[in-house]
């Protein structure tokens, strides 16, 4: 078995390396992804080994990056493009939602666009404005896009492999404050399906659903709750579009309570869709309303205030207590 202990950033790096080695049509593009190796060093070393023809430093023009990737995909390439920070994606939003997401339907299935858009997202790194956003709901709302986010190194490796190999456009959200969290990666394993949720911790009294950076917080909350005699199950969603509602339903039918947690604002967030669907599916099983924990409906604050903005252990545990009090 080829098992390695890697941080998430290095797991993505190794996954990209494997994809580049296995398919000469795979390209990596973005601002500073080449000689610098990316601002988070996720693409470190790839330029040296694969050259400027496949690891391409682009101008500071996100619309141009994605538009070029669409053209390359039309010519048979499999571009993996990096948006340097989450808040920088909006100049490319038009290309993503009106072209990348729609071409398959527009051509009645004749055209496929196997483009992966990597977006480091979320807060917790003490950054300035436009560097800590969580815009995943904006993309999950768009038909034609797959939207995923790993929470651990193994998923980071395998989900990137699956995203690159697929024929559909994938928005790949990378939890930047977890980049250096280490975990075991078996590069010879049989991975779970890309859009299947996974149980990160078993429990019987309440279900916590999270994805990306908040999975670790929820696992810690479940451990803290266990010290008070509460058994909390944690479901790692992994995919925000499509959503594995069957896995959530199976957990909720067992625990009869659900709290959804994400960094993005609660207002119109992914948690709203999950709450509505699970209320429809599990109405006669639920013993409490579905609760949501997330960011505030406000611009992301300066670094000194971000710990007040981000959902932490206390806010998750408060929601657990409120749900169990019904």
From TrEMBL:
Coiled coil: none annotated. It comes from Streptomyces cremeus. CDD domains: TPP_PYR_E1-PDHc-beta_like. Residues 6-181 form the Transketolase-like pyrimidine-binding domain. Keywords: Oxidoreductase, Thiamine pyrophosphate. GO terms for molecular function: oxidoreductase activity. InterPro entries: THDP-binding, Transketo_C/PFOR_II, Transketolase-like_Pyr-bd, Transketolase_C. It is an enzyme of class 1 (oxidoreductase). SMART domains: Transket_pyr. Its EC number is 1.2.4.-. This is Alpha-ketoacid dehydrogenase subunit beta. Its cofactor is thiamine diphosphate.
């Amino acid at each position: 078995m080829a098992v390695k202990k890697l941080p998430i950033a290095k797991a993505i790096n190794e996954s990209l390396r494997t994809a580049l080695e296995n398919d000469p049509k795979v390209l990596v593009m973005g601002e500073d992804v080449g000689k610098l190796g990316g601002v988070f060093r996720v693409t470190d070393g790839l330029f040296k080994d694969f050259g400027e023809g496949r690891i391409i430093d682009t101008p500071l023009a996100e619309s141009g990056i994605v538009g070029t990737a669409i053209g390359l995909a039309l010519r048979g390439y499999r571009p993996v493009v990096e948006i340097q920070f989450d808040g920088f994606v909006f100049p490319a939003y038009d290309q993503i939602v009106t072209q990348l997401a729609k071409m398959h339907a527009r051509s009645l299935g004749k055209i496929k666009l196997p483009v992966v858009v990597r977006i480091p997202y979320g807060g917790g790194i003490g950054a300035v404005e436009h560097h800590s956003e969580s815009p995943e709901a904006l993309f999950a709302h768009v038909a034609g896009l797959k939207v995923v986010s790993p929470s651990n190194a193994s998923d980071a490796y395998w989900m990137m492999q699956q995203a690159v190999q697929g024929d559909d456009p994938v928005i790949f959200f990378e939890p930047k404050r977890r980049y250096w969290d280490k975990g075991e990666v078996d590069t010879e394993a049989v991975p779970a399906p890309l859009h299947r949720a996974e149980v990160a911790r078993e429990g019987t009294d309440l279900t916590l659903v999270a994805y990306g950076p908040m999975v670790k917080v929820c696992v810690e909350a479940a451990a803290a709750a266990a010290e008070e005699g509460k058994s909390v199950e944690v479901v790692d969603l992994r995919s925000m579009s499509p959503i594995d509602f069957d896995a959530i339903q199976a957990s909720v039918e067992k625990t009869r309570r659900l709290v959804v947690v994400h960094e993005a604002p609660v207002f119109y967030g992914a948690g709203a869709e999950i709450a509505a669907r699970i209320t429809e599916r599990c109405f006669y099983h639920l013993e409490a309303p579905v609760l949501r924990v997330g960011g505030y409906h406000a611009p992301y604050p300066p670094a000194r205030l971000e710990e007040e903005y981000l959902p932490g252990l206390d806010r998750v545990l408060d929601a657990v207590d409120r749900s169990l009090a019904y």
